[in-house]
Amino acid sequence: MAWDFETDPEFQAKLDWMESFVTEKVEPLGYLGIHPYDVTNPRRNELVRPLQQEVKDQGLWACHLGPELGGQGYGQVKLGLMNEIIGGAMFAPIVFGCQAPDTGNAEIIAHYGTPEQKERYLRPLLDNEIVSAFSMTEPQGGSDPTNFVTRAEQDGNHWKINGEKWFSTNGKWADFLIVMAVTDPDAPRHQRMSMFIVPIDTPGVEIVRNVGVYGQQDGSESYVRYTDVRVPADHLLGERGGAFAISQTRLGGGRVHHAMRTVGNCRKLLDRMSRRAVSRTTRTGTLADYQGVQFDIADSYIELEQFKLFVLKTAWAIDKYNDYRRVRKDIAAIKALMPKVYADIAKRCIHIHGSLGVSNEMPFVGGLIAAMVMGIADGPTEVHKVTVAKQHLKQYRDVKDPVFPDYSLLNRKALAMELYPDPVGEIADAAEMAV
């Protein structure tokens, strides 16, 4: 069994190239007032396309996909290390061809799509000629998808969709949406829904508004209404009633990627607070001379390293077993831990920067809100904690301890006396006499 904390030299060279490329060329794009997903913007394409080509020339384009789809088919450990770098820059995911929700949508179509669906939707999506949206969450749905009410009913050789979806990311720029809708309301809870590809220009698709987060006034989280939206029968994705199984395929790896991108963001926050601590002077020295500041930096470093190792261990387990179900507990655990680590480090960074930290001249408040988003998106923290507990307790299913269990001190001592009756007794007596 191999257990190593080093990256092989060849891949490390790729990561080193990524680090400088993202810092020098990609990160500056985020300050130009252009959105990475707006493929209709000529200026955006003029700037992004050459960088995407550089990534392709390095063999680092869409590495989560197999070679048959133009990627490298990397496992989760390599993808995790890449996402640590990608997470620190707004345009990096789109430049490397691994932007959410397009990556997850591409995986769904690659795994479950028909040849016609792949030709019409997957190929241009992989080439970033178009972008897509995942239309799952509902205004009244909360964290339980079984509460969804958007319906899809068969109507001849079409499906007719009615309902509303909330936070369909990038719907305003999407060429198509993947919609999760109830098709079999009387089936078992997790077999009631199906997935459909819905072109954005289909009659009856209405973007009610685009909601902003991180303090944005003009956001990209689309509130979408579907009114008698008719799509051909061949726009069903996978099997009827298979939406839950499909969505888990989509979300498992994505949570690892989000976690490693969070590692990258936290690494930048720790760097910023450290620079501020050693350069900001007071009457008696620098901020770094104060024990309270030292505690903040030490806690941030410790939490970040623990979290990163946990995420990489989870990625390693996914690669080892090639079965997300076997790693479900750890995937849920890193998802639950992610917002706490992110928020703790962001708050410390804000505090060490003082009034500048809370101002709109620094990005740190956005990081704090992003941490809160991480505690809601892809399932709230509480749901993931419940999953962790249930998965963990499975191994104790057959335990029936008495009132005084075998691990009580009296029982452990009795067992010890059975195993070593004479020597232990003599030693105990001698010890009592000595006292």
UniProtKB/TrEMBL annotation:
GO molecular function annotations of the record: (R)-benzylsuccinyl-CoA dehydrogenase activity; acyl-CoA dehydrogenase activity; flavin adenine dinucleotide binding
InterPro entries named in the record: Acyl-CoA_dehydrogenase, Acyl-CoA_Oxase/DH_mid-dom, Acyl-CoA_Oxase/DH_mid-dom_sf, AcylCo_DH-like_C, AcylCo_DH/oxidase_C, AcylCoA_DH/ox_N, AcylCoA_DH/ox_N_sf, AcylCoA_DH/oxidase_NM_dom_sf
The keyword Cell cycle is annotated on this UniProt entry: no
Protein keywords: FAD, Flavoprotein, Oxidoreductase
Residue stretches spanning the membrane: none
Domain spans labelled Acyl-CoA oxidase/dehydrogenase middle: 133-229
One cellular component (GO) term of this entry: cytoplasm
Domain of life: Bacteria
GO annotation (BP), single: fatty acid beta-oxidation using acyl-CoA dehydrogenase
Cofactors (names): FAD
UniProt KW Phosphoprotein keyword: no
SUPFAM superfamilies the UniProt entry points to: Acyl-CoA dehydrogenase C-terminal domain-like (SSF47203), Acyl-CoA dehydrogenase NM domain-like (SSF56645)
PANTHER family: ACYL-COA DEHYDROGENASE FAMILY MEMBER 11 (PTHR48083:SF13), MEDIUM-CHAIN SPECIFIC ACYL-COA DEHYDROGENASE, MITOCHONDRIAL-RELATED (PTHR48083)
Protein family membership: Belongs to the acyl-CoA dehydrogenase family.
Protein name in UniProt: (R)-benzylsuccinyl-CoA dehydrogenase
